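We close this part of the discussion by returning to an individual protein. Part of our work consisted of pairing the sequence of a single chain with a tokenised description of its backbone. The amino acid sequence and the backbone structure tokens for this protein are reproduced below.
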Amino acid sequence: MTASPLSGRRILVTRAAHQAGKLSEGLRALGADPVEVPVLEIQPPENLGPLDETLHNLHLYGWLILTSVNTVLHLALRAAQLGISLAADAPSQVAVIGEATAAAARKAGLRVTLIPESYVAERLVEELAGRIQGQRILLARAAVARDVIPDALRQAGATVDVVDAYCNAVPAAAPEQLRTALASGVDAATFTSSSSVTHLKDVARLAGIAFPFAGVPAISIGPITSQTLRELGWAPAAEANPSDIPGLVVAVLRALRG
């Protein structure tokens, strides 16, 4: 019998607990042992005022941009709590990053107008640039996200409002979980966002563990996550292409099989 290609390899999975399943399943299918240490915990924004005001004024916007599944879920949840119909009141033009975000948006009743060919913010900006001059755009995203999209869209002639749909917190259990995981060793660490990189660094600090992890290859989901890794001194050993979960699994396989 042929051994599974990642048989016995322990792979660190840093996604939020409720989102780790698909990546872990993909790794497990190749024989790997996913080691889940969620370094992100998704919470509502600290101040709901700006989000509530924005949801009451959705009719003012020509475009809505959604950057992640979490953005869609928290936008839809808060709208429902306020008695607002996201499907009825949202702009007719909706742009999303990634097929998973598109699926979540459609489930929330939104009609998706644009999905960029590659799942990165810069590609979305390129495809929107010729279509949004003079328009007012709403960008919903996580708190403390990068400013690539709003800055570039303003340069293209749009008026851009940014609202925090949710924020990322460090789970209380993460430092001890990380100590336990690394005590048994890991063969690679996977990252699905820049936030997963910066939060793992925070968790490592709280756990008293040197970051980056010596001898552990980092596997990135895409260019922005790779950039964050490099900025923190951990050059990725492989990068997913396409920038999605199946692509990340293939990148792990590529990195560990040489």
About this structure: The longest strand covers residues 159-169.
